[in-house]
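Action item from last meeting closed. Structure (334 res):
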């Protein structure tokens, strides 16, 4: 097994002292250009990599950020992460992504490791059943933190979506097309986000005298959306349109229609939520409530950078509005 290169081995290769190598690697001290080049050439030859964690401990600056997400497999989350990584990478930060799977115990393990390894900031989607001790620990450790999608408390920065506003807009669009039997499809349980989205849908139906509607739950993936849509149509054949909790469920719903020889937008109207890339290339292209996940991720990263640069600034709450993007999966009742 080869020996890991160290400051000492680089110094020996370059024919200089260990302090000189250390200064070159840190960009400090009065080092001649000739010596600097010699040290860098030696480091490259030996494949030496600076121990950034040790350097961070010396300087107090940690250029690694943690991102605790729920359900990394969801394309919406992947696009948000892409936006976060792009912006933070341009600012010189490394982003470590961990999936809590919405499990508070798993989240606690990740946060404990995060604190011990001293990352510079944290973005997280608080898991369901996150307790006060977890919030107190983050506050005690003075970790610059931004909660995403679900607010943690009033003392912590938050970035999210105006969920009820978006589903109300989607529901009104279907009503204006002439639909009177509209169901809500997707999501499980009543977490913060889904509760808001369902409320927007239910309130709009009620305001139009169309009753309380039908709320049909299923996990956030295409296969679940396909199965749930088939069950919904079987038990509620009067339904002519669905507002979906997310694009993946909506795409699954469109696949269910296709399997039955029906066409989304003609025989049944379907509206998604998120506007992930798959929504554009779906067959037919999906009408959806667009929030530009990658841009949302960049907004999230910017809030964290602001917090890291000014830890004592008042906490902020940022919510973005969705935009109705009309494609081919909505139309007048078939």
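Sequence:
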């Amino acid at each position: 097994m080869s020996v890991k290169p160290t400051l000492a081995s680089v110094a020996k290769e370059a024919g200089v002292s260990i302090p000189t190598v250390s200064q070159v690697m840190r960009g400090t001290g009065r080092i001649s250009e000739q010596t600097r080049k010699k040290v860098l050439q030696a480091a490259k030859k030996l494949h030496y990599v600076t121990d950034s964690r040790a350097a961070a401990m010396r300087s107090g600056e940690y250029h690694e950020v943690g991102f605790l997400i729920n359900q990394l497999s969801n394309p919406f989350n992947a696009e948000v992460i892409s936006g976060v990584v792009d912006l933070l990478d341009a600012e010189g930060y490394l982003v470590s992504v961990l999936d809590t799977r919405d499990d508070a115990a798993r989240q606690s393990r990740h946060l404990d490791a995060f604190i011990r390894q001293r990352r510079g900031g944290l973005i997280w989607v608080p898991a369901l059943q996150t307790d006060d001790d977890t919030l107190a620990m983050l506050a005690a450790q003075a970790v610059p933190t931004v909660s995403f999608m679900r607010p943690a408390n009033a003392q912590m920065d938050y970035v999210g979506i105006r969920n009820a506003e978006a589903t109300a807009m989607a529901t009104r669009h279907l009503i204006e097309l002439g639909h009177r039997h509209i169901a809500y499809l997707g999501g499980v349980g009543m977490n913060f986000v889904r509760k808001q989205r369902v409320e927007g849908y239910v309130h709009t139906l009620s305001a139009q005298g169309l009753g309380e509607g039908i709320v049909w739950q299923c996990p956030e993936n295409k296969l679940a959306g396909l199965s749930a849509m088939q069950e919904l149509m079987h038990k509620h054949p009067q339904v002519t349109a669905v507002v979906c909790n997310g694009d993946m469920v909506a795409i699954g719903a469109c696949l269910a229609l296709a399997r039955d020889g029906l066409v989304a937008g003609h025989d049944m109207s379907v509206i998604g939520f998120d506007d992930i890339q798959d929504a554009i290339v779906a067959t037919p292209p999906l009408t959806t409530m667009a929030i530009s996940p990658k841009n949302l991720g960049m907004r999230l990263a910017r809030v964290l950078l602001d917090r890291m640069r000014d830890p004592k600034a008042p906490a902020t709450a940022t919510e973005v509005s969705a935009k109705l993007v009309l494609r081919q999966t909505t139309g007048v009742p078939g």
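Note appended to the action item: Residues 293-309 form the longest helix (17 residues).
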